[in-house]
Write a structure and sequence with these properties.
heterodimer, A: alpha+beta, Beta-Lactamase, 3 domains, five-stranded antiparallel sheet, elongated, B: alpha/beta, globular
Chain lengths: 465, 129
């Protein structure tokens, strides 16, 4: 843009002043009279016109052609007054009349020119202003479009459009990455769908777009390079030229990748199935405990008590496993949980052994064994007297796991006449959990139980209970 | 019930990884009067079948560690010992007939003991015919 000239900078603000024609003419006459008086008072009689020319020029520039004419005529009258020996502007010599005529003619011309110049300046300024506004509007519109384009380009969604024949015209970067396509303009909409879903385009999707303007649903895209299936929420709509009333020129899409969502759902379902299975298994174990306890019990009341106690032991073991999402349990935690009810009643225990991770099944098995031993010790063994105590010592040497329960300071114990579920659990069932043997000894010192089996301590391969 | 039906003439192979559940199932089979063999995985089960031709019923759980689960074991037994009757039990509700060999029975765990005894008895009766 050219910078406005000095004249334009002075004149343009003055042109903004709006004054009624009568006031304008009055103002011009006043100025002409004032200049005439000043001239008469201080200046010589020569150059009668000179001082009026700037007034005429200014009048024409600021107020226009007519004001220029008024100023010229007023100046001529004032000049006439000063030139006439009588002071009457009409009693002039021929030469003076000629000068008057010439003065009026020339200055009316100057006024015309000045007025035209002024109008041209205004016109030019208006043009410049219009151009500035247009450039601003264009810049704003361009910025808006650039931002919209950035949104499309940088969105995490698959955004693209195709022409009415289904030839893809554009796919944003996220979209290209999602399906692994390098040049979308070489593809058609069908190419993005799996074989199994392609029929839906003409049968289901396009009819909906034609009648409702849009379609949204879950379909599977395929990866162009690997062929991998990509579950997506496909949203497709008629793309109109310009605004909502424009003619349909193609199809637009904003498609969401559903892979992580599907994965999360699948994991949740798997977890639920896993939990249900675990619950069924636990119920089977409960059924076995109840059934075995009933077989070995003399009365219903006795059965009720032992079943309740065994299920409580099972429940405590499950608490430990729940803390580790049923992967493993530290043997210390298992031991402490199993003896806790007896310890609360003042029984003395010594537990000594390394930290070993037990899988869920073995943790449950050892819990049940310790429950049987402690219950028996409290009834008949070392925990039935004030001075008795129980030592638990375990070790893991290579793969060989050894666990000893040694009662000391209790009464002499004898081999029971009938072997109940407790002995069976210790000697056979718990031994089986450790793929080894369980030996229960009764003697003067008290009960001694030795469990020996194989244990490979790697938590990641923990089996389910 | 047939005159000549004597459960003790039939041996049932119980395959279950959990020792506690295995013990209970073996007790149940023995209470019904059958001879019981027990295995904690498919490999043990196959070895017992090879050694004891008197085994006529396979009662197996589905989940077990090792190279074969209970369903694979059932199909292997159907191939190698076609006369052996198969009963599958599982805590998985998703086990369907399609997963099992033909004419095998399925019991969801935990199952009522009496129902299992009746099923074993029926299977043994069918074997007599």
């Amino acid at each position: 843009m050219p910078t406005p000239s000095f004249l334009a900078r002075l004149l343009l603000p003055a042109l903004q002043i709006k004054i009624a024609p009568v006031a304008r003419f009055g103002l011009i006459l006043l100025v002409v009279a004032a200049v005439a008086l000043l001239r008469a008072a201080f200046v010589t009689d020569i150059l009668p016109y000179l001082f009026f020319i700037p007034i005429i020029l200014l009048s024409a520039l600021v107020f226009g052609r007519n004001s220029g004419i008024v100023a010229t005529l007023a100046a001529a009258v004032a000049a006439g007054c000063s030139m006439s020996p009588t002071g009457n502007p009409l009693s002039l010599s021929v030469a003076q009349w000629s000068a008057q005529g010439l003065f009026v003619l020339v200055n009316v011309g100057i006024g015309f020119l000045a007025a035209e110049l002024s109008r041209s300046l205004v016109l030019l300024e208006n043009l410049a202003e219009g151009r500035r506004e247009a450039i601003h509007r264009l810049a704003a519109a361009t910025a808006k479009h650039t931002r919209l384009a950035s949104i499309v380009e940088q969105s995490q969604e698959f955004i693209g459009y195709a022409d009415l024949e289904g030839r893809v015209q554009f796919v944003n970067e996220s979209g290209k990455r999602l399906v692994g396509v390098a040049d979308p303009r070489l593809t058609v909409v069908e190419d993005y769908f799996t074989e199994a879903d392609r029929w839906r385009i003409s049968a289901e999707i396009l009819p909906a777009v034609h009648s409702h303007g849009a379609w949204t649903g879950e379909v599977e895209f395929r990866h162009f390079a690997t062929g991998a299936l990509i579950p997506v929420r496909y949203n497709v709509f008629s793309l109109r030229d310009g605004d909502a009333d424009g003619a349909v020129v193609g199809y637009g899409t904003v498609t969401t990748d559903l892979r992580s969502q599907k994965l999360a759902t699948a994991q949740r379902e798997m977890l639920t199935r896993e939990l249900a299975h675990r619950m069924k298994n636990t119920l089977s174990i409960v059924q076995a405990i109840v059934s075995q306890s009933l077989r070995a019990s003399g009365s219903v009341a006795q059965a009720r008590d032992v079943i309740a106690a065994r299920l409580t032991a099972l429940s405590r073991a499950q608490d430990i496993l729940t803390a580790t999402s049923w992967t493993q349990a530290d043997i210390h935690d298992v031991v402490q949980a199993a003896i806790a009810p007896h310890r609360d009643e003042g029984a003395r225990f010594v537990a000594d052994g390394p930290h070993i991770d037990l899988d869920a099944q073995r943790a449950l098995g050892l819990s049940l064994a310790l429950h049987e031993l402690a219950t028996n010790a409290a009834k008949y063994g070392a925990l039935s007297t004030a001075g008795g105590c129980v030592r638990m010592i375990w070790s893991l040497d290579e793969k060989i796991f050894r666990f000893e329960w040694i009662e000391q300071g209790g009464p002499e114990v004898h081999v029971p006449e009938s072997r109940g579920f407790g002995s069976r659990l210790l000697e056979r069932i718990v031994a089986a959990y450790f793929d080894g043997s369980g030996v229960l000894q009764f003697g003067q010192e008290g009960v001694r139980f030795v469990l020996e089996g194989e244990l490979v301590s790697h938590p990641s391969s923990a089996e389910e209970a | 019930m047939g005159q000549s039906f004597q459960p003790s003439r039939f041996a049932v192979l119980v395959v279950e990884h959990d020792p506690l559940i295995l013990t209970e199932a073996v007790d149940l089979v023995e209470e019904a009067g059958f001879i019981a063999y027990e295995a904690r995985n498919a490999d043990q089960a196959i070895r017992l079948l090879e050694r004891h031709p008197e085994i006529t019923v396979l009662l197996t759980d589905v989940d077990m560690p090792g190279s074969m689960d209970g369903l694979k074991l059932a199909r292997a037994v159907r191939d190698r010992w076609p006369p052996v009757r198969i009963i599958v039990t599982s805590g998985h509700t998703k086990v369907t007939e399609a997963d099992m060999p033909e004419e095998s029975l399925f019991f969801a765990k935990p199952y009522p003991p009496q129902t299992m005894v009746q099923a074993l008895t029926r299977v043994a009766e069918q074997l007599l015919r």
